[in-house]
Design a protein that fits this description.
It is a single chain. With 94 residues, the protein is α+β, with helices and mostly antiparallel strands. The chain has a domain of 65 residues: Alpha-Beta Plaits (2-Layer Sandwich), CATH 3.30.70.240. Helix 1 packs antiparallel against helix 2. The longest helix has 14 residues. The protein is globular, with a radius of gyration of 14 Å.
């Protein structure tokens, strides 16, 4: 299995049809998230595919998309009822 990096994917989309398409696309890669911010683990190829496909959906004059790579050395903190992943090295995409 290829090495995956941890990203936050966030978007601000003005039209409902594009918003639905952006949500569907990001959720195909997401392991968690809320509203328009999602946690994604991506290989370099998946990262390229996500950026390309999102560029095809969004209007660059009206919409925004941010894919932020997080530091892999950072410690995971949980608040409230959240629990750390029981197997953080294995994620199923499909």
């Amino acid at each position: 299995m290829s090495e995956r990096d941890f990203f936050l994917a966030a978007y601000d989309v003005s039209r409902p049809s594009r918003l639905a398409a952006a949500l569907k696309l990001v959720r195909a890669y997401a392991t968690g998230g809320q509203k328009s911010v999602h946690e994604v683990f991506l290989t370099p190829a998946e990262r390229g595919d996500l950026l390309h496909d999102m560029a095809m959906i969004l209007d660059e004059e009206e919409d925004r998309f941010l894919l932020l790579r997080l530091d892999p050395r950072a410690r995971v903190y949980t608040l409230g009822k959240a629990q750390a992943p029981s197997d953080p090295d294995l994620f199923y995409l499909g």
